[in-house]
Specification:
513 residues; alpha/beta; Rossmann fold; GMP Synthetase, Chain A, domain 3; 3 domains; nine-stranded mixed β-sheet; 15 helices; 25% strand; globular
Length: 513
């Protein structure tokens, strides 16, 4: 897509939040590595450029650097934290290490308010050791920290914030970003679900046309459902061949229920039961990364076999594989935007093996989950499908901590079903981003029916979030937790203890593995 805002990433863990905030404003934004080619930037007609924070000192040897002058010739620039220091150094200012680092909440004072909604004094979130001692020529310091350092600088086409307006800890940070986007850059809010649909439709047609055949791997979740529906509406049902795989690691009754949902949507879908093969390959495997890689490999094998059968039966040739990969999947799997840290691998990220002989198409690769749901509503997908809680590609394999057995799968399926059933009964399912049960490799002593037991422990997990990048645990009432615990320990005989996970992300991840 042409236009919008470019965010150059210098390794900050908050970079994705900048992109999210702008899109919430109705403005398209995309993230690229800090050394993104200048010719590509010029050809994209960006309305503004934002330099992210980062872990480096701008004066350190090997620190990521960018000539801000050449960026300013293209569009106005906003530097955040490291980005402000880089902007200052590149344009002739002075940046030095400070004797007093500023981390966490700080109070700044504005001498010139750049937004009418900002008070003279403002609480902000800082995380830096270097400071701008002297702004570049043509800039003025418009805010100072409580330590007397430059907290914000401004010129006609470039702004700098030494704090992070994108995080919720900063008071009215959105107002500051809006001031840059709509004030300094004169942007217009045009990024909505209709624009997403038009943009992605153009992308599909330019990449695939209407003559290519594509295989779409379905998971039962929101992302692949939206991808399959979008492709089918764009290219036609006879060109989009959907495959839904039962890997033996789905939730209770999920294979049958999801197949019916897909048929009701009018998708060209075939179900493949490969559970025996998946479980055989996972036998005695405990390491979560090995589980993910094995499952990813087996999905590819199933797709290869499905392609062969479809091509033989229908006398066609399939050249593309479509997947519902999202932006957070990409960020957590591969450090492609600067030096942010790899958290975990995803089975559907990272390209395809050469022997599959397919090209990959990922229409949602730069969308966040809430944007996918908005797109799905525009496509007319029922809300009961769009608002299903996310379910990982590896399924219950990463919710059974340790080796996987068929017995443990059945135990977890029953317990998970009870948990989700009570969420619906108590009318709180839609208040939660994701809820699930985790079977732990821990046995504890209990008393059931006046008898001593030595049985399994189950952890419950429920979080609230907007996009999965950050999350907080959901505060159930004690009565709800008591109801769920009683049902599980009474109805699932192999479990005698239930615990609730109250860890946010960060420091934890949403899934346990």
């Amino acid at each position: 897509m042409k236009g919008g805002f470019l965010i150059l990433d210098f390794g900050s863990q908050y970079t994705q939040l900048i992109a999210r905030r702008l899109r919430e404003f109705g403005v398209y934004s995309e993230i690229q590595a800090y050394n993104y080619e200048i010719e590509d930037i010029k050809s994209s007609n960006f309305e503004g450029i934002i330099l992210s924070g980062g872990p480096n000192s701008v004066g350190a040897e090997g620190a990521p650097f960018r000539d801000v002058n050449e960026l300013l010739e293209i569009a106005p620039v906003l530097g955040i934290c490291y980005g402000m220091q880089l902007l200052s150094k590149s344009l002739g200012g002075m940046v030095e290490p400070s004797d007093l680092s500023e981390y966490g909440l700080n109070r700044i004072t504005w001498s010139k308010r750049i937004s009418p909604d900002i008070e003279r004094e403002q609480k902000v979130w800082m995380s830096h050791g270097d400071v701008v001692k002297l702004p570049p020529p043509g800039f003025e310091v418009v805010a100072q920290s409580s330590s007397g350092h430059a907290a914000a600088i401004q010129s006609e086409r470039a702004w700098g914030f030494q704090f992070h307006p994108e995080v919720t800890h900063t008071e009215k940070g959105d107002d500051l970003l809006r001031a840059f986007v709509f004030g300094c850059c004169n942007a217009e809010a045009t990024w909505d679900s209709q624009q997403m649909k038009a943009t992605l439709t153009d992308y599909i047609l330019s990449k695939l046309g209407k003559t290519e055949h594509v295989l779409c791997g379905l998971s039962g979740g929101v992302d692949s459902t939206v991808v399959a529906t979008l492709l089918t509406r764009t290219m036609g049902k006879d060109k989009v061949h959907c495959v839904f795989v039962n890997n033996g690691l789905l939730r209770k009754n999920e294979f049958e229920e999801v197949m019916k949902n897909y048929e009701d949507l009018g998708l060209n879908v075939r179900g493949v039961d490969a559970s025996e093969k998946f479980l055989h390959e996972l036998k005695n495997v405990s390491d979560p990364e090995k589980k993910r890689k094995i499952i990813g490999k087996q999905f590819i094998e199933v797709f290869k076999d499905s392609i062969w059968k479809i091509e033989k039966e229908e006398k066609i040739k399939i050249h593309y594989l479509a997947q519902g990969t999202l932006y957070p999947d990409v960020i957590e799997s591969v450090s492609i935007h600067g030096s942010s840290v790899t958290i975990k691998s995803h089975h559907n990220v990272g390209g395809l093996p050469e022997d599959l002989n397919l090209k990959l198409v990922e229409p949602l690769r730069l969308l966040f989950k809430d944007e996918v749901r908005a797109l799905g509503e525009t496509l007319g997908i029922p809300g009961r499908l769009l608002w299903r809680h996310p379910f990982p590609g590896p399924g219950l394999a990463i919710r059974i901590i340790g080796p996987i057995t068929e017995e443990d799968i059945k135990i977890l399926q029953e317990a998970d079903y009870i948990f989700r059933d009570e969420l619906v009964k108590h009318d709180i399912y839609d208040d939660i981003w994701q809820a699930f049960a985790v079977l732990l490799p821990v046995r504890t002593v209990g008393v059931q029916g006046d008898n001593r037991t030595y049985s399994k422990t189950l952890a419950l997990r429920a979080v609230t979030s907007q996009d999965g990048m950050t999350a907080d645990w959901f505060e159930f009432s004690p009565s709800f937790l008591k109801t769920v615990s009683n049902r599980i320990t009474n109805e699932v005989k192999a479990i005698n203890r239930v615990v609730y996970d109250i860890t946010s992300k960060p420091p934890g991840t949403i899934e346990w593995e």
